Amino acid sequence: MKKNLIYFALVALLFACDNAFEDRAFEKQSVVYHVIKAPLIDTSNSTPPSPPLLYYGQHNFIVYPNGKTYYHNKFNNYGWCGTGIDTSNPDFVSLQPSDLMELTDDNLVQFVKSVVQDTSSYHRKIAATISSPVDSITNKHFNEIINVFSQKNFNIYSVRKTTEEEQVVLSHKIENKEYDPDQINWKGEFGGIKFLPPNSKE
Fold first, then answer.
1. What are the boundaries of the signal sequence (predicted)?
2. How many separate domains does the chain show?
3. Residue 20 belongs to what domain range?
4. pLDDT in tens, 4-23
């Protein structure tokens, strides 16, 4: 009888250790989000054409692999009119390292709650972007930002890769290097206004 009790005790202890190990392994797993490089477009006539990719909004969050998030509000407001605007490439928004605000676990959620607005009204055309320098987002701040958007009924936002300008400026900020946009050998092209509409008064 004593041997049986010892046997059952050992089996119970073994299962307890296995479950504890599984729990710890599960806790270490993290959700990975993937940035879609090219949006899927429905070419049928059943839906309207997709809007152009939103590169910048009034609120821009860069979720970085180092576990931090950076925010800026650099945005060229064209009055929501696409006349003469090249939307195939991101604008040059004259971003500076000082424009990037660092957000951490301690202040991220409260900051997002303080800046986003309810966009359920048609007339409130406030937009945001969440970007990442890599395709796979492992920074938990991504999910926290999305949750706040949902709670605040903030619906106009896009998830994208960081623009070249954002990436260059952010690297200068992180490495504490002096930044001069005129000294950067930009690899890509910039969008924005390509021609001015004719002045009807002239």
1. 1-20
2. 2
3. 2-30
4. 544 444 444 444 444 433 33
- 45 inside domain: no
176 inside domain: yes
CA angle, 79 then 84 then 88, to 5°: 95
Strand order in the sheet with 69-72: 101-103, 69-72, 59-63, 128-132, 157-161
Neighbours of 11 (CB within 10 A): 10
Please give the model's pTM, rounded to 2 decimal places: 0.72
9 and 88 within one domain: no
For residue 48, is it within any domain? no
The whole-number pLDDT of residue 22 equals: 32
Are 97 and 185 contained in the same domain?
Answer: yes
* pLDDT reading at 32 higher than 90: no
Contact at 8 Å (CB) between 137 and 64?
no
Name the token pair of 64: 């970085």
Residues 124, 165: Cα–Cα separation, whole Å: 28
| CA angle, 28 then 31 then 35, to 5° | 145
